[in-house]
């Protein structure tokens, strides 16, 4: 399973990269806007830190404009993947970009049917948002299992990025289902590492070692 970090914050990206646990980065307009920086420069810096797929989102809504914007984004670096919202125009753009060899990540996916049709259009990745589904009392992870089954049935190459992850259980559930990728905020990466019994264990070992040292 691959881990992407879901942030545009350089410090978080550097810390996660140094841990050796991330394979790529996903950003979105909200995450970029939090950084209060010029977006292209920021994306270039992210590409200089992480050697893996870096998702950058197109904000145009019409297919022609999405394609133009995607071409510009793809020019930033060979690792850029263009995130495109799940709409009819978005799918038209995905078809054209896939013919040009530009990688796409169809985002704002909330159902298995959307994931199926995005794969048909030639999406490289799809991003189903589990947390936002949980927020409205749907079990977000159910659609991950459905998408996984559908892609396996028909040997689609499209990879599933489990997105909108809010806690470590989301990551574990995604891994049990066999999703290709989880895109995880830094706070949740930290939670994946920690366990109170680990801290208690370290404390006890150090205390016992102090006792034996004096002998
Ligand atoms: C990633 O691709 C998405 O943009 C992100 O995971 C959305 O997460 P949120 O629902 O916590 O904003």
Q: Count up the helices.
A: 11
Question: Radius of gyration from the CA trace?
Answer: 20 Å
Mean pLDDT, to the nearest integer, reads: 97
> Helical percent range?
55-70%
CATH level-4 homologous superfamily: Aldolase class I
The figure for the number of domains is 1
Q: What about the largest sheet? A: 8 strands, parallel, barrel
* CATH level-1 class: Alpha Beta
Structure class: alpha/beta
CATH domain topology: TIM Barrel
Distance between the termini: 47 Å
| Count of distinct strands | 8
Note the beta-strand portion.
15-25%
As residue ranges, the low-confidence spans are none
CATH architecture type: Alpha-Beta Barrel
Listed once per kind, the bound small molecules are:
erythose-4-phosphate
Shape: globular
Please state how the strands of the largest beta sheet are arranged side by side.
1-2-3-4-5-6-7-8
Please characterize this protein's 3D structure.
With 215 residues, the chain is of the alpha/beta class. It has one domain: Aldolase class I (TIM Barrel). The protein contains eleven helices and eight strands. The protein has an eight-stranded parallel barrel with strand order 1-2-3-4-5-6-7-8, surrounded by seven helices. Helix 4 links the parallel strand 3 and strand 4 (80-85). Helix 4 packs across helix 5. 38% of the residues are buried. The model has no long low-confidence stretch (mean pLDDT 97). It binds erythose-4-phosphate. It is found in: Cytoplasm. This is Probable transaldolase. The active site is at 83 (schiff-base intermediate with substrate).
